[in-house]
Structures are given as C-alpha cells and as structure tokens.
Amino acid sequence: MYIAIVALTMFLLPSASVLIEHAQQPATSIVFLMGRWFVFWGVGVRLGLAGLRQFLQPAFTAREIFHMTSDEALPLVRELGVANLATGLVGVLSLTLPGFILPVSISAGVFYGVAGVRHVAERGRSLNETVAMVSDLFLAAVLAVSVAATFLSH
C-alpha cells in the first residue's frame, strides 16, 4: 500500500494532472503546471497522508523507516506527523491559492532533499526506504526546477 500511495502521489497523479491541464490550456507554462500539480499531489496530498499516518500510527514510521524498536520516539514521530500534516494542508490549499506554490516548493524541496540525502547514507535500506529515497530526491529535483524557473522568470 505504501509503495502504491507514493507512486500515485509523487509521480503518476501529478504527471497526469500536468498533461491534462496542458492539453486543456496549451499556453500555460509546463514548469508552472509542474509546480502547481507536484506541490498539490507530492506535497499536499502525500505529506498530508504521511502526517496523518505518523500522527495516528507513529509506530509505522518509527519501525519501518527509522528502524526504531522502542516506543520512546513515538511522541517525536507524532510531532513530525503534525508538521507534515500542516505542510500538506498548505500544499493542498495551493491549488486554489497559487501564491502558496513558491513558498511550499521551497520549504518542501528542502525537506524532501534533506530526507532523500539522509536515505542515501543509510546502509542496508529496506524496500520502503529505497522508495522513500527515490521519491524524495525526485520531488526535490522537480521542486528545485520549479523554484529556479520562477526566479528566472522574474
């Protein structure tokens, strides 16, 4: 289930959304559409779902991603969940408030980039960690392109 959600929210749904909107409005910049839809799906929906799961089921993240066996870290994972839920909410709102796209792209790009690099350093990664690493680095790159294009266009 985890891999399917990551694949859908971090690649398939945002890519499909970009292609559909571009087909409907060909004059709209592809890079703008990438920013819009990858922020909505990859940050808003993905981090929103992750945050909800981390808050309600912190043991999954603690054990499956961070390999922690004690319950000592669960309050910290819940707090991470609230931060992810809050970031996800702003990402979802960016669909109706386009001014949110750039700030969310910057903050989530940093978050995903650092998380991805952290996963690279892990030895003996599990399948879930490898999926997290690849998707984190991919989205960090997409968001970096979106941010750079925004700055270059001004």
Detailed description of the structure:
The structure is a single chain. The chain has 154 residues and is mainly α. It has one domain. The chain has 6 helices and no strands. Helix 2 packs across helix 3. The termini are far apart. The mean pLDDT is 94.
Overall, the morphology is elongated
Number of strand segments: 0
The helix count comes to 6
Order of helical and strand elements: HHHHHH
Instruction: Work out the helicity level.
Output: over 70%
The residue ranges in which pLDDT falls below 50 over 5 or more consecutive positions are none
Structural class: mainly alpha
- Indicate the mean pLDDT: 94
Distance between the termini: 41 Å
Biggest sheet overview: none
Q: How much beta, percentage-wise?
A: under 5%
User: Nearest-angstrom radius of gyration?
Assistant: 16 Å
Domain count: 1
Quaternary organization: single chain
